[in-house]
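ZP: hey, is the S-adenosylmethionine complex queued? I don't see it on the tracker
AM: it wasn't, my bad. submitting now with these inputs:
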Amino acid sequence: MTAKTNGLDTRRAWDEMRNQRMRPMNIGYDPEFRAKLAEDHSAIARYNDYEYGRKAIDALGGILDENSRVLEIGAGPGTLTIPLAAKVKQVVVIESSEVAVRSLKKNLEARGLGNVEIVAKNWMDAGERELGGGFDLVVCSHFLWQMKDLEEHLEKMEAASMQYCAVIQPAGRDDMAKEMWTRITGERYEGEFDPDADYFAYLLLRQLGRLVDVRIMNYGAERDFEQEVRYIASFIGKYVEVDHHTKDVIEQYVSSKGLSMEPQSAVVMWWKIP
Ligand SMILES: C[S@@+](CC[C@H](N)C(=O)[O-])C[C@H]1O[C@@H](n2cnc3c(N)ncnc32)[C@H](O)[C@@H]1O
């Protein structure tokens, strides 16, 4: 699979933006931070009966039914997997993080869902044994930045699918995290940790002649005080060390603003493979 036009510029933009998105976190105030953040992700996935996943499946419309077999890449705690498993015949998940696999198993058990097979493996190392299952849909949600080579990723998705592929990617970041970033770094926020990556996939797919269906879905996410502080710290910590002092600054800011449910959006795109 080779994109035809202006591939070099697109690749350079992808690499530069990905370097920002994938910067490691420097958190000094809590040695348990990562474990707590993983639990936060799991709680947010469950928010409002897996609203994010339910809305994504609604947006995918008629391409799924009770006989569908689905491959999901990078499932995390089951944000999409849980509502997907409730709708289709079988889901195979490829997930490389042990922590995520543990959360996913817990969430599946809580729902009594027995039709999900978990392959604890790096997607890029997955071969015929894992991918030869004749899937009706191959999907990834909030995953694109994990891939160094987006074209290779899309190509691998297509190779594993018999019918459809889909990409779901959140759009935009909450105001609180962005405002806090400016306060702490003194710089104007210019999208450094926005999750948006869908337009790269769209461009590549259209250049390859795929006709891509696109829908926007809206969903909510509510965090408690500690979760909100960790959420903000996880982005700020990519740029400055979040020590006890910086954590106090974040806490004061969150206290002064108060907690509210910010509506969020995600882009859902899918296409039929040739
Ligand atoms: C940002 S989370 C998204 C989780 C979930 N899909 C969602 O929509 O909330 C990305 C997930 O992909 C997993 N992941 C990252 N790189 C991976 C790879 N190469 N192979 C398999 N899983 C991977 C991470 O462990 C993490 O659970």
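AM: back. The first helix runs from residue 7 to 21.
ZP: great, adding it to the tracker
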